[in-house]
Amino acid sequence: MSTTGTAVADIGAFLADHESRSTLRFITCGSVDDGKSTLIGRLLYEADLVLDDQLATLEVDSRKVGTRGADLDFALLVDGLQAEREQGITIDVAYRFFTTARRQFIVADTPGHVQYTRNMATGASTADLAVILVDATRGVLEQTRRHTHLVALMGIDQVILAVNKLDLVGYSRDRFDAVVADYAVLADEVGIDRVTAVPLCAVNGDNLTGPSPNTAWYSGPSLLGALEDAPARGRDAEGPLRFAVQWVNRPDSSFRGFSGEVLAGTIAPGDDVVVLPSGARSVVDRIVTAEGDLDRATAGQAVTFTLSDEVDVSRGDVIADPAEPPIVADRFGAQLVWMAETPLVPGRRYRAKIGTATVGATVGPSLRAVDIASGIAAPVASLGLNDIGTVAVTLDAPIVIDRYARDRTLGGLILIDRLTNDTVAAGMIDDTSGTVSDLHWQDLSVDRTARRGLMGHGSAVVWLTGVSGAGKSTIADAVERKLHARGVHTFLLDGDNLRHGLCRDLGFSEADRSENIRRAGSVAKLLHEAGLVVIAAFISPYEAERRAVREQFSVGEFVEVFVDTPIAVAADRDPKGLYAKAERGELVNFTCIDAPYEAPDDAEVRIDTTVTSVEHAANDIIARLVENGIIGG
């Protein structure tokens, strides 16, 4: 064989060897200054995984911004942001790839500061194992507890407890044992069964890649040895088929394939499959790849396949084994890590992304937040930045889900703000009992059409919004009076009146005000189904909540009326004395004083009360009902 041929063969053998090695994804986490970045940097150095040019750069950086004097600052191998290097902390999630003779690794070095907990959750979402550092001089801290809760929440069931900085306690076995015992209690609380404790001094390299003479009393594995021995999470090739449709591939009229990833099981031409949530059935025709058709595809492979029938398949659908179909649900219980500066508002509409499906979602009012110090979940009104809570989620439409412990793809979700498109939460589904078969719409003999025939007119909701003192209730009363005189069956829902009964348990926080409008909208929907023309007068300051009410009705059945009164005029009227109280600080979260009002841009009727009388305003609203065919002219 020629020299060139030998080199090619050697490269091929090298690549084949690397490809055959398993990959472990792990995270490092812990409190600030526990030494996470130093540990990873020194581990790479001790394992001879730092290239000469990287080492030369490290020497320069250590002299310039290092914290170790004349010694190498190994944290700089991992801390990549300028702000991190200047402050000596980790802010972003730093990913590193390295390989040893036994396996390949992808490590996420995550930040320790409490304000960056959401970054840590990002790193944990794909990890098989967590290396949790504890400073031997400080022991188990609140942030250690927080990170351990998050690790368990993300479905990571194996932890390496790295008890670092043992040099500062004289490599004391008693101190190591005490930290391990404290952490064992915490691990038991959150349900982590597999914990391997390793005594370390990361900055000196003790027990990173081999035994240290400073801890002759320790006979367990080194950190690298524990990482090499840890099992990696893999796709379930033996389970029933789960294929998440990412893209409907139609380059021309002669080909229609479905591209995505096999999440579990195997798929082959001739297999019977079911498309969910629709329930349509077909048979696999071909499995297509760029290199040619396959006889079989298995868990973890990304492929395109065709079906023998022209069935409706869309992005977000899951193609599955009809003998063992997955769960289809429109409601579930989940644990959330709230990641936004703006708190969670129960009842507000968000978008949920689960697998490849994206659907509208609402978080229910029954929230419980985990107290990190005690580990106990207690009822709360909302969730704030970095809070961990248990929630109930309702979707606009049923989709395929699973418990996160069983399937990270179909059991993991993110919540997205509908207005800003920001990701506001990451969640893990843990209760799938709310399947679509649990609840049904009861068929009724008398429907809205029958009621319209009896009453002689249609039903609708007239929703008046505006600031306090704008004149909503006055105009609503005039509208109902005029409709009553016409023989129209009506009901007036007034914000203050509803708070005396159905909503008396609610305050005026953003979350409570959102829930107030959700309840009001539900009542309005029921009265609408009864065949009435409903006139609803609510400040309803948030556009998202008003839109959520509107979306319950067909076009023409919801008439939004913006009672547009300048705040100065409304405050000057102040019929209830509320503005004066708010200015004195006696009322909090008062609209336009210390809480916002989001004026509608597309209301069907706009009334400027500085130039329009109450009678004219009422006539304009009734004219819109006539125009929409709700009542006769």
What does the model show?
Helix 5 (117-124) runs parallel beside helix 6 (142-153). Helix content is 28%, strand content 28%. The protein has four domains: 18-229, Rossmann fold (3-Layer(aba) Sandwich), CATH 3.40.50.300; 242-320, Elongation Factor Tu (Ef-tu), domain 3, CATH 2.40.30; 330-431, Translation factors (Elongation Factor Tu (Ef-tu), domain 3, Beta Barrel), CATH 2.40.30; 448-627, 3-Layer(aba) Sandwich (Rossmann fold), CATH 3.40.50.300.
How many separate helices? 17
CATH superfamily of the largest domain: P-loop containing nucleotide triphosphate hydrolases
Question: Mind telling me which CATH architecture of the largest domain this is?
Answer: 3-Layer(aba) Sandwich
Helix amount, in percent?
25-40%
Strand order of the largest sheet: 2-3-1-4-5-6
Q: Quick one: how many beta strands?
A: 27
Q: Based on the structure, what is the oligomeric state of the protein chains?
A: single chain
Biggest pleated sheet: 6 strands, mixed
Low-pLDDT stretches: 80-92
- Quote the distance from N terminus to C terminus: 96 Å
CATH class of the largest domain: Alpha Beta
Strand content: 25-35%
Q: What overall form do the CA principal axes indicate?
A: globular
Cα-atom radius of gyration: 31 Å
